[in-house]
């Protein structure tokens, strides 16, 4: 079977090709799946997509018309997939239900420490042989309070690191994680977590119930000198409301690895273009803000786990099994 993989990064390609060698013919594209690129999948029974693929209703219909029957998404989140339409069209859809939680948790802490200790500004200065310390003062984290919104596998890994720093631990989730409570985490309501935390890190999935969970009201509850980190999904934060608070001089730092309108921007080189997104452009101007391009998961360990799960998903499909990663099962045989 020939598989067409969309949105394959240069570092990812040799790992993906090696994993599929001897199993199926794999063709890699660096373009992302969208309504414009969907016709490229014509004639391919199976395709693989990346986290920023557009798998809305229009794209799914184009894929189905072209003969695609199976979609293997190389990510955990599936907020970009219209699952109901896929089911109506008879498409089988699988994802990667989990991979190394340490990749994202460690990167979230990288963002937190970078904004706290002004690493980007300091590195830029020293490159110009400016060795002043003005404006570079950070804070000790030991003894301060961290609020973790979402204490699943990634949130737990983030909490373990916070525990190592000697921080007071507050958590919020629909269910308590015994591993986090064993570390001394107190579960509280969201409003209390926002009010009391010096550092807030987001690790909940993007669902209708969590969309813009950090909205204008939530931002107003946060301390003026708080640090906010989002390495989960951009849609968890109302970015325009965040910009308004930053313009008012609030927050010690903000670290964002995701952005709610990142599709069509992240993973692409836009350095020679005029970016029309005024909100993102404004966000980039604040010296206490770091924006990275959805790279928290991007370690060789995590990517290899994602690829291994994708291979298993394809093998399960070809052998007629319903694996644990299936979002939309194959239609019943008649």
TrEMBL record:
InterPro entries: D-isomer_2_OHA_DH_cat_dom (IPR006139), D-isomer_DH_CS (IPR029753), D-isomer_DH_CS1 (IPR029752), D-isomer_DH_NAD-bd (IPR006140), D-LDH-like (IPR058205), NAD(P)-bd_dom_sf (IPR036291). It comes from the Bacteria. Belongs to the D-isomer specific 2-hydroxyacid dehydrogenase family. Keywords: NAD, Oxidoreductase. Residues 110-296 form the D-isomer specific 2-hydroxyacid dehydrogenase NAD-binding domain. This is Hydroxyacid dehydrogenase. The keyword Chaperone does not apply. One of its GO terms (molecular function) is NAD binding. It holds the Pfam family 2-Hacid_dh_C. The keyword Transferase does not apply. Transmembrane segments: none annotated. The lineage of its organism: Bacteria, Bacillati, Actinomycetota, Actinomycetes, Kitasatosporales. Residues 6-327 form the D-isomer specific 2-hydroxyacid dehydrogenase catalytic domain.
């Amino acid at each position: 079977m020939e598989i067409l993989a969309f949105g394959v990064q240069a570092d990812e390609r040799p790992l993906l090709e090696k994993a599929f060698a001897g199993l199926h013919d794999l063709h890699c594209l660096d373009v992302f799946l969208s309504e414009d690129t969907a016709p490229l999948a014509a004639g391919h029974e199976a395709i693989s997509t990346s986290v920023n693929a557009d798998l809305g209703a229009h794209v799914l219909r184009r894929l189905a018309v072209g003969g695609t029957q199976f979609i293997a998404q190389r990510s955990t989140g599936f907020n970009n997939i219209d699952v109901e339409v896929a089911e109506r069209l008879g498409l089988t859809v699988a994802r990667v239900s989990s991979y190394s939680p340490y990749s994202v948790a460690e990167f979230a802490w990288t963002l937190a420490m970078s904004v706290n200790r002004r690493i980007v500004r300091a590195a830029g200065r020293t490159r110009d042989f400016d060795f002043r310390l003005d404006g570079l003062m950070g804070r000790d984290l030991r003894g301060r309070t961290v609020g973790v919104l979402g204490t699943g596998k990634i949130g737990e890994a983030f909490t373990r690191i916070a525990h190592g720093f000697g921080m007071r631990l507050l958590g919020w989730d629909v269910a308590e994680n015994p591993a986090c409570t064993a570390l001394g985490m107190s579960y509280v309501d969201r409003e209390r977590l926002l009010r009391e935390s010096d550092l807030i890190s987001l690790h909940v999935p993007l669902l209708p119930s969590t969309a813009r969970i950090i909205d204008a009201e939530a931002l107003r509850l946060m301390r003026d000198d708080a640090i906010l980190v989002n390495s989960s999904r951009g849609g968890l934060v109302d970015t325009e409301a965040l910009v308004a608070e930053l313009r008012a001089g609030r927050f010690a730092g903000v670290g964002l690895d995701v952005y709610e309108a990142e599709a069509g921007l992240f993973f692409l080189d836009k350095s020679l273009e005029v970016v029309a997104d005024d909100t993102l452009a404004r966000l980039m101007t604040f010296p206490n803000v770091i924006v990275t391009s959805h790279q928290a998961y991007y370690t060789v360990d995590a990517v290899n786990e994602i690829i291994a799960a994708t291979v298993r998903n394809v093998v399960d499909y070809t052998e007629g099994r319903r694996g644990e990663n299936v979002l939309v099962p194959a239609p019943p045989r008649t």
